[in-house]
UniProtKB/TrEMBL annotation:
Matches recorded under InterPro entries: ArsR-like_HTH, HTH_ArsR_DNA-bd_dom, WH-like_DNA-bd_sf, WH_DNA-bd_sf
SUPFAM superfamilies for the chain: Winged helix' DNA-binding domain (SSF46785)
Protein name per its UniProtKB record: Metalloregulator ArsR/SmtB family transcription factor
Lineage of the organism: Bacteria, Pseudomonadati, Bacteroidota, Sphingobacteriia, Sphingobacteriales
Superkingdom classification of source: Bacteria
Domain HTH arsR-type as annotated: residue spans: 1-88
Species of the source: Pedobacter albus
Length: 102
């Protein structure tokens, strides 16, 4: 199955995993300890994030550490930017309309 970054961030558990590893790498057990679900379920979420390119898994001895790859989120930022101008224009139009004197 082909996965993309939008599929990865669609799930609240995966978004929380991203938040956890955003500023520090964590091993798989440390990540799983933050959730009330099985370790295999967390591993599946991590697998999806890895397949989407949002994280790297680094082996350090017997431990596996997850590290964020923020550059992949640029795809989401670019998609949002396309609509930002549209909504800014709509809000500006609304403001002009509301500020018109009767």
């Amino acid at each position: 199955m082909r996965r993309d970054v939008f599929q990865a961030i669609a799930d609240p558990t995966r978004r929380e995993i991203i938040n956890l590893i955003a500023f520090q790498s964590l091993n798989l057990n440390a990540i799983a300890d933050h959730f009330d679900m099985s370790r295999p379920a967390i591993s599946q979420h991590i697998k999806i994030l890895n397949e989407c390119g949002l994280l790297n898994i680094r082996q350090d001895g017997r431990e596996r550490f997850c590290e964020m790859r923020f550059e992949k989120l640029q795809e989401v930022a670019n998609w949002i930017a396309r609509y930002q101008t549209f909504w800014n224009n709509k809000l500006d139009d609304l403001e002009r309309h509301l500020n018109q004197k009767p």
